[in-house]
Amino acid sequence: MQFDAFTQTDPRLVALVEALNPAQREAVTAPSEHRLVLAGAGSGKTRVLTHRIAWLMAVEGVSAHSVLAVTFTNKAANEMRGRIEQLVNVPVRAMWVGTFHGTAHKLLRLHWREAKLPQNFQILDADDQQRLVKRVLKGLEMAEDRFPPKMVTGWINAQKEEGRRPHQMADQGDYSQRQLVRAYTAYQQACEAQGLVDFAELLLRAYELFRDQPAVREHYHRKFRHVLVDEFQDTNTLQYLWLRLLCGPEAKIFAVGDDDQSIYGWRGAKVENIQKLSRDYPGIELVRLEQNYRSTGTILKAANGLIAHNSGRLGKNLWTEDREGEAIQLYAAYNEYDEAEFVVNRMRDYLDGHGRYSDLAVLYRSNAQSRVLEEMLIRARLPYRIYGGLRFFERMEVKDALAWLRLLVNRDDDGSFERALTTPPRGVGATSLEKLRAFAKQHELSLWKAARSGSAALGRTSGALGLFLDQIDLLDQQTRELPLAAKMEKLIERSGLKEHYKKEKGEQAEARLENLDELINAAKSFERPEEEGLDPVLNFLTHAALEAGEGQANAGEEAVQLMTLHSAKGLEFPVVFMVGLENGLFPSMRAVDEGNLEEERRLCYVGITRARQQLTISYAETRRIHGVEQICAPSQFLKEIPSETLVETRPRAAVLRSSFGVQSGRGGYGGGGFGGGGAPRSGLGSGYEHGNAWRERQQEGYNLSRPALSAKMTAEVGYGGYKLGQRVSHPSFGEGTILSFDGEGERTRVEIRFANAGTKWLMLAMAKLSPL
DNA sequence: AACGCCTCCTTTTTT
DNA sequence: AGGAGGCGTT
Asked: What is the pLDDT of residues A20-30, one digit of tens each?
């Protein structure tokens, strides 16, 4: 189809393409061929993907039925569907838009017979899987120290992600390899006996379904004429194999990705799939999106300069029509507290001016870094939100309740059986359970069936056990006709879980009860009867496994955002703080040891390109890591960012050090002092050399902790009855909040942020302060 | 079954 | 340091 012809005829199509730049337009409107779109950060990737679909429908008359769009996260999938519907102005329920796992799951539900699964198969989440592997290892009497469950689980998943089944590996490799295969075999048998499917299994089964069932394969070959894949650089071996099988001779692939943003190699993602795609589809058309609509020229220059240090890139250079913007601020903090304080102070500057809390994001390499930042944010009374952490459906109490529901659906689910049997406690202890397990194993029965049939062999225990079995059956009968939410409620009540958590002490208990209520609430939205022939209970349980829910309550509220660099991918913020740029932390020690520096660098690239207007980078010269104070060298990435994009912010060294007499060999700060003047220290010279020497000695086991201390100590002690964060009143400046202290005794000075008079340093002894 | 002590480990995360 | 998980005690 010719684009020009349509611009003149249909105003809707004009609107569809008019806002696109030439490269985007080409990607969106070119005739249907296989296409690979290399989309740089902030270049309008999602836009291209959604517009492409809208274009196909509007111009080429493609039906929603023949489109499949796959993403990695539910969030991305939901967003995509929403934006497509906005563009074409009608709901597109018939279109398959979902995650790899969600799509695989859908196929397996539709073709459970061909996939050789029970109709009511259940999904095992990571936690369930871990437990099951553990039990299997126990059963095989494999030593936990030699074969840690975590490692075995990882290994099994890795095999599945390479498309390998145990029988393909039998009798291969050394002793431990054989043991692993034995574990995989037993684990898989357990899953099959219990009708369970883990995440990797969803993909592998779907792959095998297409591989082994020509009728199914051909059906979908006829159906899906357009297969669109988001974040293609994140696909693993199995996902790629499956995509290839899924695309019939008529299907056109539209893959969007960015090799420079491949940061999940450690979990099996294969950037090479991009090159593979080009080899497997020789005619594939390559489109590069390099114009960036997100960041300032300076930020892009920094990002480009950094990523240029990677080898084997497909090659891209981001550019923008936007202005240069501000220089990137670089701050050398004394320690992690100083760093956090600096971040908070800069946040205040921004917030005083105009900004919203949610404009601000702090990105760090590892979760452990969030604690100090949090502390500082609390003191500063700034609302914040940390991404990541336990999700709703992963919470203990929620999983407990769901175990009861799962048991109603499938009595042979041993994991749920054990969970329901033991929580709340009912006098069936470890010994009885062990007996039951042994009996079940001996007769190759599920725990449920073993308990039912073997009561005699189980001796005295059978009393409490029998009561439990009857209770389950009774609950099943009594709730059979109830709508889902009512069923859930009754289960929570009658299982004794509610009572159990009521008895629990502490503030957690309350939250637990609330979560149980919330679970009932969540169940309500799955009550639409028999949608697409799916049983509401199965539907609900699937949702719980596949979409574990938001990382935290109150999503989307006005708050400063804290997250790892990994979870920041795909997001953008006007103001970004990237903290902890120290060798050993970022790049992480492990990455360096294992030679994964390039992926680390890409992670840094991702971090830089999250920023729209302002980027601030910081590192600490001293940091407590695993409980030990360490001297840190600045990250090597700092050297790789073009220096003309950076401006070093002078530290307020004296604030942190004067009172403790810490003047020791800290190269770099010496000249600055505090107060005006003084050229910013340029380059990062002195930090590096002694940093390396330190690392060498560190590896020999020396602990080079210095007797320094530190913002933390100051903060906790407080002065003359005043504490950090305290509200005070001053006769001429009005009300304010104490931000920090400096010095001791009568020389103590105090930094106060006044509501109407800005931030000031005052001598505590002189200032006529009164607490509020 | 609940509690407390001890040891171990420590990058990143989605489904 | 701090959390998790294992294990032994009450």
From this structure: 999 999 999 98
